[in-house]
Every structure is written in structure tokens, then in C-alpha cells.
Automatic annotation (TrEMBL):
Organism annotation: Canis lupus familiaris (Dog)
Membrane topology: Lipid-anchor; GPI-anchor
Gene name of the record: GPC5
Entry superkingdom: Eukaryota
Signal peptide: 1-26
Transmembrane portions of the chain: none
InterPro entries: Glypican, Glypican_CS
Gene Ontology annotations for the cellular component aspect, listed alphabetically: cell surface; plasma membrane; side of membrane
Function: Cell surface proteoglycan.
Alphabetically ordered keywords of this record: Cell membrane, Glycoprotein, GPI-anchor, Heparan sulfate, Lipoprotein, Membrane, Proteoglycan, Signal
Protein name: Glypican 5
Keyword Lipoprotein: yes
PANTHER family per UniProt: GLYPICAN (PTHR10822), GLYPICAN-5 (PTHR10822:SF12)
Amino acid sequence: MDARSWRAGCCCLLLLALVGSPRSEGTQSCEEVRKLFQWRLVGAVKGLPDSPRAGSDLQVCVSKKPTCCSRRMEERYQIAARQDMQQVLQTSSSTLKFLISRNAAAFQETLETLIRQAENYTSILFCNTYRNMALEATASVQELFTDVGLYLFGADINPDEFVNRFFDSLFPLVYNHLINPGVTDSSLEYSECIRMARRDVRPFGNIPKRVMGQMGRSLLPSRTFLQALNLGIEVINTTDHLHFSKECSKALLRMQYCPHCQGLILSKPCMGYCLNVVRGCLAHTAELNPHWHAYIRSLEELSDAMHGTYDIEHVLLNFHVLVNDAVMQAHLDGQKLSEQVSKICGRPIRTATQSPRCSFDGSKEKHGMKISPRNDEETLANGRKEFINSLRLYRTFYGGLADELCVNELAAADGLPCWNGEDIVKSYTERVVGSGIKAQSGNPEVKVKGTDPVINQIIDKLKHVIQLLQGRSPKPDKWELQMGSGGGMVEQVSGDCDDEDGCGGSGSGEVKRTLKITDWLPEEMNLSDVKQIHQTGGGSTLDTTAAGCSAATETTAFILMGVVMLLPWLW
């Protein structure tokens, strides 16, 4: 039974009790106490006093006055007091917990959507532009983006390795279909030799290194951000289910239920008294406060820094552009690459066979697919910003938790008679201590001893994730120090990149967020078609007919901006 239902039940029972008695305090009968006890603990309990008696057997609710409580009632009340405290803790943290868990789920779902969309863009690139190698490229594309998802969601894999595997597997396809084309097929051994030669002959120039750099800088912060959100949920779950010490349990019993033993069933503790008890019970929890504050600040700093080439949205949605640039560069250097491959692998032994082509559903030709401009409100960065703005309100949550519980839930309002642990008084006269373990040495209500290993473990986890968050904040000098072991991490960052311009300053034809793709590329578009589009000023929107693709490419399309940007090389 939660605390709110308990208070409501108390009010109802009091009204019923007052029908026969104008005042329950000091009553000569324990009837109201019995009714409330049975209702609170759900069911009748044998041995409840019918009238006040000496409480010589009581250990906590000791009083010189006659009592309506038995030892067994006191034990049951102590359990109820702990349950009530856990209930108000969970109620107090419910909004914060929902905020973090909802945004963690939304962030993960958005990442999954981005991965699928980027995979579709890349598949459509092959399907519409390099149709002869599209089906053979499908497995490599799917494997790459599967690895991207696994890494983002915590798998122990290296982004440099799966990016290298992708370009290794791409080179034999480019070599066989573009550099040394024909309706023939080389042996598996020869294709494997070409794959192994990729890192030596460097057919794609510096593009694989650029991809590794962008993937490393954008995936790792997003992975760390998501892990940090999950830890935040773990912290709240832990503090929602605290194990209270014996001293705390006795103090909670004395504060919440000992008044019932004297017939004071609606009395509330004085504010100062409540603060001493709850601050004592939550002394170890209050030690979380500086670490929780640093945790939120570190989340905010990382979120603010995840833009430009550190923005996973930009990197994933423009991956296909870099792939296109890589293929075009290999095509342009075809003669030189052919000579290099021949020296390493020799001449291929070919068998005549028809190359599989990208299949498509002709019914889709009349239905051009569209990608609408992304509104500012829909971007991942804006979602993070809104979340951080809301989370910032909870920076001192654990430092002020005891005060919040007393003010909002437990204590009597100022100026009203209240319970001080022994009797009803006008005000509490003992010293009120502060929050935290050190402040409890003078606590008159609760003795706080030792440390709480569960809270200490959570503090250690917070410290660790704070280090991760601060270490993953995209500051180029710091980033190179921590992530400089792979080849993709040595690329330098040349200033910030504004999200509004799509971060397209590399000259590679990157897709901006505001571009609208109104149609598909035609099934058999060739270089002359692209030249004509470029000459007539149609570089940003291509009027084309729809071409369907294989399994993973049903819902998205792309603009072949990379080809247009490379036209000066082809003239």
C-alpha cells in the first residue's frame, strides 16, 4: 500500500472514529488504533489491545503513558515504516527515472533508425549506380552496419576493424566490375588476393582513413552517452530500494507509528524532527550528490560537443557519399591499379558467367520515393538538448532528497502542533543537522555508523562513467591522446562544422539535412546523363524514374552528389 493511499485511509478512519468521539487523542479505547492497524496491514491480527495498557514489553515506542500497542504491533509497524519510506522515495524519483529511461529508449531507437537509413542509402547507391556489383555488395553492407549497431550498443569490437573489412571486401568488386570489367568471373582465390592487396595498393586513397576517423569520433561518444543513461537508471533503481539500518528503521518507526500507540493517529512529525530522521537514514545516499551533479554536467558537455564530424547523424547519413567517392577514385586510377594488382596477384583465370544484377520491382517505377527535409525539432542533437535541459533541474536531487520528502510528504506544516518523537508539541527544539555522513555526528535521532557498500559501489560506477564521458568529449587534442592507436584516429579536425550547412565542406558532395530527394535515379543513368544534368543546372535535384532494389533498400533513396562533384575530373 503506498503512502498516499495510507494517508487517505487514515482520514477516512478518523472521520468514522470522530462520530463517537470528539477527540481521539487520550482516548480510553484502542478501537480506532485497532481499525487503522488492521486496515494498514491488511487483515485482522490477533492479540491487539482493546484498551490502553502499560507498554513494558515495547522496545521503541516506549512511553510513561498507557499504550494501545503490543510488541507484535511494534514489529509490524517497523516493517510498515520501512515500506512507507521506500514508497515515498520511489514516488519522489519517479519523474526523474521516467525522464532518463524514456530518453534512453528514444535515443537507442533513433540510432537504430539512423543505422537502417544509412544502410539503405548505401544499398541504393550500389543498386542504382553500380548495379552489376549490387548483389555481391549486399552482404558487406549489411555486415558493416550490423557491426555499427553492435558497437553502439556495447559490443567489444573495433570500428577500425569493421571499416577496414568493408573496404577490403569492396575492392575485388570494384576491380572486377569497373577496373577490369566484363561478363566474366574471376576465381575465389584471385578475389581473395585482391582483397588482401587492398591496404597495400590503396585503391580508395585516403577515404578509408577518413571513414575510420569519422566513425571513431562519432560512434564512441554516442555509445558512451547511451551507456551513461543506462547507468543513471541503475543509480535511481538502487536508491529506490535502499536497505535501511536498524537504527534508521527504529527512528522511522518512532517518527511515523509510535504516535498511534498513544491514539494520535493523524499526528505528523515536526519539520526539524523529520529532517533529522530522514537525513540520518539517507546520509549515505546524500554522498551521491557531488557525483550525480558531475554526471549530469559531463552528459551536458558531451552532448554539446557532439556536432559536425562528431555528429553521428551526419556521419552515418553521408557514409554512402564517401563510398561513392572511393569507388570513383578507384575507377579513375584503374590503369595504375590494374598494373599493381597484376604484379601482386598475376593475371586472373576467368570463366564466362553472367554477373548478377540488382533486381527491382517494375511497379515502383511510377512511384518516386521522397525524403522530406528534417525539421530542427526532429534531429538527434535537438532531442539531446531538450533532454539535458530537463535533466539539469535534477543536478542536486540527492543532496536535497531528505528535505523534499519532509516538506512534500512527511512533516507537519509550519505553525501546527507536531510530533517530536515523544509527544505533541508546538515546535521541535533539538538541533537540526545537515545532509551527508559527516553532518550526522551530532544527530540526536539517528546514529549513523560506517559506510554503505551498495552506495559506495554506485559512486564508483558514477566516477567511472564520468571519466568516460569527459574522455569522450570531442576535443581534438584530448581525443587524439585517448584514441590515437588506430589509423583512423590521426586525422586532424579543421575547425567546427555548422550543422545548418550540413558539414559539406569537404567537397565530397555530402548530403545536407535540408536536401529533399524527390525522385530515384534512373535505372540505367550513365555519365553523359549526369553531365547533361550538371550543365543544365540540375545538380541539386535529379528528375528521374524509380528503380527498385534488393531486400534492405525498400524505403529510402539518395542523390548522387558525389558523381556531380567529380565531373571536373571526368571532362
